[in-house]
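Morning. Coffee machine broken again, so started the prediction first thing and wrote up yesterday's gels while waiting. Chain of 361 residues, entered below exactly as on the submission form.
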Amino acid sequence: MHAFFAKFAALMSENFKIPTVFDIAREAGVSRGTVDRVIHRRGRFSAETEKRVRDAIKRLGYSANLNAAKLASRKPRRIACLLPSFKEGEYWDYINRGLVESAGTLGFNLDLQMFLYDQTSSDSFKECSSMLLDTPVDGVLLNAVFKDEVVEFSRELDERGIPYAFIDNNVEGLGNVLYVGFDVYRGGELAAFLLTMSGKPEEILLVRILRDKDHRGDPNRVRRQGFLDYIGKNFPETVVHTVFIDPNAPEGITPTLEAFLSEHPHVRHLATTNSRIHLAAPFLAAHPDIHAVGFDDLEKNVKALKAGYVDFLVTHHIMDISRECLRLFAESLSTGEPPAQRNHYVHLDILHRLNIDGYER
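Came back before lunch.
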């Protein structure tokens, strides 16, 4: 009798198993991407392929609505967030707030575990990532400050079968299921375009943040490359200088920039590819003839923009990135299926002091 009920339960479980896109792909003998293209009617596929997929959907009783309903009853999902530590009002403060505030509003049962590392120390990243690997998690959401360490960590996640997603920036060629942020290379190009709209610059000062003594912590490397490539292509005779400033020693920033300007008196263009152009605001206030472009609508950056010290900010709704990344990642963890689109690029906004009013984070 027990054997009968066990067999019956197994049969019922199999019969009532809600099929996934992967099941459809196996049934039809096509790839998961092909199934997605047929369902959403995008891209190219033959009439024969469409028939095979539609027949498989009918046989298995696949329904996107049923799958959506299934999500609501899924077990709790623990997501580890391996992100840079922050102070109030900094970029990663908003990313963190966006994650925490949206976790309970997305229709998933999510448990966020925060692992915050010092972005000036690769050892801190290694320590946090090691602690994370000792913690049972369903998925990992991270950012790429230390490229080599991130590559090594991602390989460990791959070996353990732990899915992971990048937020804000990423490393190409890894096994992440998702990236949400803007196209950082194009963002760098856009900043260079805005900086040079006023004419051909003889020299440009690129202000970078001193993160660690070996300059290994470099989350803006791709954005900076986009900036440099645009200048090199369109203004090949322009010289781009680089000066590092230490955000932990703000009293030395203006003297450092003034010393540079005394040696390069023809510089009239300044840019940062990080979120802290406000650190250069006192220097820019003393030199109103210098054009400046930065990133992100942090409160201090907006203050410098409104004062006229900064010409443009390239930005986006920071907390919206958090919400979208968490939503897509949670859905992927719940269904066991990667998102139909791996890279989700957000729209870039250009802020000037004349259009900043009414722009809401």
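DSSP finds 14 helices and twelve strands in the chain. Going to sketch it on the whiteboard this afternoon.
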